[in-house]
Amino acid sequence: MPGLVSIKTPPETPPLRISVSETPTHAQAQTPTQLRSEPVNSVSNSKPASPLPRRPPSPSPSRSKFSPRKPPPDNPNSEAALDNPDLGPFLLKLARDTIASGEGPNKALDYALRASKSFERCSGGDDGEPSLDLAMSLHVLAAIYSSLGRFEEAIPVLERAIHVPDPPRGADHALAAFSGHMQLGDTFSMLGQVDRSIACYEEGLKIQIEALGDTDPRVGETCRYLAEAHVQAMQFDRAEELCKKTLEIHRAHSEPASLEEASDRRLMALICEAKGDYESALEHLVLASMAMIANAQDTEVAAIDVSIGNIYMSLCRYDEALFSYQKALTVFKSSKGDNHPSVACVFVRLADLYHRTGKLRDSKSYCENALRIYAKPVPGTTVEEIAGGLTEISAIYESVDEPEEALKLLQKAIKMLEDKPGQQSTIAGIEARMGVMFYVVGRYDEARNSFESAITKLRASGERKSAFFGVVLNQMGLACVQLFKIDEAAELFEEARGILEQECGPCHQDTLGLYSNLAATYDAMGRVDDAIEILEYVLKLREEKLGIANPDFEDEKRRLAELLKEAGRTRDRKAKSLENLIDPSSKKKKEVTKRWPGLGFRI
Q1: What is the pLDDT of residues 429-441, one digit of tens each?
Q2: Does the predicted TM-score (pTM) go above 0.85?
Q3: Which residue from 5, 163, 224, 344 has the fewest beta carbons nearer than 10 Å?
Q4: What whole-number distance in Å separates Cα of residue 402 and Cα of residue 223?
Q5: What are the C-alpha distances in Å from 232 to residues 266, 310, 500?
Q6: Is the dihedral of CA 177, 178, 183, 189 positive or negative?
């Protein structure tokens, strides 16, 4: 049975912060907002959970210059007053003051709504120039909606805002357009709509490059921000391209071994690891560690040591991995305390290491130590950190044949994340893992429900064309087969076939397993000719491209011979047992372990 892998778990994007300056500086009015990203924290995001840090909000709302205005009209709440050009700035200032005073966003929302209406009525002066005041008010309005968790209402506001400025008119307009696209991308990200989010970021980057050139340091920050988004979407080739550009820009504008370069190299190492290029990943991490040492960043050096340990473990260099983990553990305990989640994360990595080397008692001991820390988290620990740790520990319990305990941990992780915006893809990945575990223990109805829930979330988040989505469709199809829902299984296998052929190619192991499952399902439905066609195609692939040494070749050849023999009979025949027809490799699911490069989990 093709292996199931975990999705790239997009990390939490913090709620958009509402920040409107009363008198923007000249620099703010003339240049696009810079994007800053936190260094990649390899400790709190070690495998198999999402390896990325929390990304900060991209730009703040765009800003424009206000000239001193006359006092507002006597009754600013009247509809007629909205035509007064003095009212918009007055209401926007009230919204800003309301936010600053802590009175609550609902009152600020009312002021911002009326301000945007006033700016819209008064926009388009004699020169016909678009109103940047209107764009800014819409950005602030959308930010308030987001702070209230009303992201769906923020979307149309921002879509209106990005069409107000005209970038060719100058830097002010470029700033407004750039900020609008980045804020819209952040909002889509909070809704889990990854593809639409990335499309907005790409458009924002294009506007910024046209305004500043492609070597400006601020362009480098945006490239890095966008690279992180592509990693979250498991689009590693584009992420690598952007990260290389970021490195080039920072090397040109920063001192050697700068913190910016170190942060870029950690992200590049993450991408290389995900693509299976462990040697390149190790090289980037060593260079990043040297830069952090030069800048006296001991805690960051420890975080990089954890990432280096992960690479060594992927290369089966267990002694070197153990040394890296122990170095990091010593630093974290001394700098953060024994109960910090960073310490728990290293415990999980040590548990995985000892499990791989057959020291199961030590492995379980480290798991229990980590769980004790997660049970009583120190202040400042996020639920995402805890949920990620529980997910990693569950993978270890699953591998030592304790699926019930693993399921409890995954259910706890989902409960922590279900109310958090922007976590739908993460939850979908966890539900897919739960579906595999339910399937393994024979709870097929629960497996189907878990897969169905995961697929619904993945469709909503725009990941319906990813290889992972195709694998989950295949797994749900297998669960449907066990429940004798053959027609539903066939539909799922057919959809998965189109995706996996496109994303992985016909010779990939997941695609070959899907072909076998689809052929078996067609045979069970009485569509013998379709089943024969698929098996003949698979055998041709093995003979011409993959070789015939694979044990599945003989089995597929035997099954094809049986189908060809029966093709001359009437279709009214005794149906074969699906257990015998389905992909034989699925019977070995407890023994087989597979890993999606750098980011997956075992089944």
Answers
A1: 999 999 999 998 8
A2: no
A3: 163
A4: 43
A5: 15, 19, 20
A6: positive
